[in-house]
Amino acid sequence: MNETIFFVEDDTTIHSLIKATLELNGYRAVGFKEPLVFIEALKTTIPDLLILDLMLPNMSGYDVITYMKGREDYAKVPIVILSALSDELDVVKGLDNGASDYISKPFGVLEFVSRIKSNLRKGKNPGEETDVLKVRNLVVSKKKFTCTLNGKPVSLTIKEFELLSLLMQNHSKVVTRGELLKEIWGFDSDVATRTLDMHIKTIREKFATITDEPYITTVRAVGYVIYDEV
Question: If DSSP states are collapsed to H, E and C, what string results for 8-39?
């Protein structure tokens, strides 16, 4: 059975684009332009995922998230924010409130679909999620969207944060390139791309401003690993 995705978007053009994109990729897409109508629809159908704008009539997207996360029946539904509000504070606020991901407008259709696939997979395995991850002096809080190294904050992009969190969840175990590309970017195979390597490079550079101690180790032709001990 195809997954059911609800989305709340009041812009007619973007509303049509989201619906067409989801349906072309095999999902059952149900769109709403008004959040109160969406909430009423929840009483009969609980979706596999919600795509949510923040600037909506009568009720903000933040309020919708609070409503969803405060009710047991809806709390585990992954919420992907799709918004023109792209400042770091907006992103952090959305994720802190309980959203699973944040996509900024305007958005690329291919990235949009890969992020939806990734969040649907996460939604099917909620029990595997752990909020605070710690390896040596590296600490990540997925709920607060924070990262500290030796007690100092490290500013990460969303993809860097997801990548680091996945490596920390599998600490001392090598995670292959294919696994990382599939889980973080939604690629179905180990495609020829430098995206993963560039994200690893950037994370290492940020860590290097705080410590000389290595954290992310490259396993040549296989993938990456974070060891419990140096």
Answer: ECCCHHHHHHHHHHHHHCCCEEEEECCHHHHH
Please say if the pLDDT value at position 184 is more than 50: yes
- Which three-class secondary structure state does DSSP give residue 137? coil
- The DSSP result for 154-177, as a single string, is ----HHHHHHHHHHHHTTTSPEEH
C-alpha to C-alpha distance for 169 and 178, rounded to whole angstroms: 17
* Structural tokens at position 186: 């939604």
Q: In whole angstroms, how far apart are CA 117 and each of 48, 76, 121, 186?
A: 11, 16, 6, 6
CA distance 23 to 4: 10
Cross-strand pairs, 29 = 5
Beta-bridged to residue 134, according to DSSP, are 139
Instruction: Give the pLDDT of residue 1.
Output: 47
210 with 149: CB under 8 angstroms?
Answer: yes
Which alpha helices (DSSP H) does the chain contain, by range? 12-24, 35-41, 61-69, 88-96, 109-124, 158-169, 177-180, 195-208
**Tokens linked to 194:** 């430098």
| Beta-sheet pairing, 138-141 with 146-149 | antiparallel
d(CA 222, CA 219): 5
pTM over the 0.85 mark: no
Structure tokens, 78: 């992954």
Q: Which amino acid is at 102?
A: Y
Q: Which residue has the tokens 């029946």?
A: 73
Residue 134 CB partners (closer than 8 Å, separation 6+): 140, 168
